[in-house]
Design goal:
It contains 4 helices and no strands. The chain is an all-alpha fold and 138 residues long. Helix 2 crosses helix 4. The radius of gyration is 33 Å and the shape is rod-shaped. The protein starts with 7 loop residues before the first helix and ends with a helix.
């Protein structure tokens, strides 16, 4: 697709590296209901299997291993989500810049149209005055 046919979002998306796209994907996944539901199911299963485990409780109450897994998940998730938020800020700035450029071009076009309309109005008024002057002379 030629560069001039791309909108700001497409142009911005093409500049993202692998890590940036991965961070966005992780943040989108972790910020979804499906992630919350799946994680809740895993926690309930983990606790349930440890409570009723007949042979061995691999992580007995107070579930220290589960807490360690959550801490590790949070330690990695926080900076990844912050990277995604920073990228969202970059997207917002890019969009604001494009909106500003569009608004400036629209303002210039409106000013040109206003000048044209004023010229047409002035021309019409001049013609009307000329016609009225001719009528007065008769």
């Amino acid at each position: 697709m030629p560069e001039e046919n791309k909108n700001w979002h497409q142009q911005h998306k093409e500049t993202l590296g692998f890590g940036q796209r991965l961070a966005d994907s992780v943040a989108n996944g972790m910020g979804s209901w499906s992630f919350i539901i799946i994680q809740s199911i895993i926690v309930v299963l983990w606790m349930g299997l440890n409570v009723v485990g007949f042979i061995e409780h691999w992580d007995p109450y107070p579930y220290i291993l589960l807490n360690l897994l959550f801490s590790t998940q949070a330690a990695y998730a926080a900076p990844i989500i912050m990277m995604a938020q920073n990228r969202q800020n970059e997207r917002d700035r890019a969009q604001a810049d494009e909106d500003f450029k569009t608004n400036r071009l629209a303002k210039e076009e409106i000013e040109k149209l206003q000048k044209c309309l004023n010229a047409i109005e002035t021309d019409k008024l001049d013609k009307i005055i000329t016609i009225l002057e001719k009528m007065e002379k008769k």
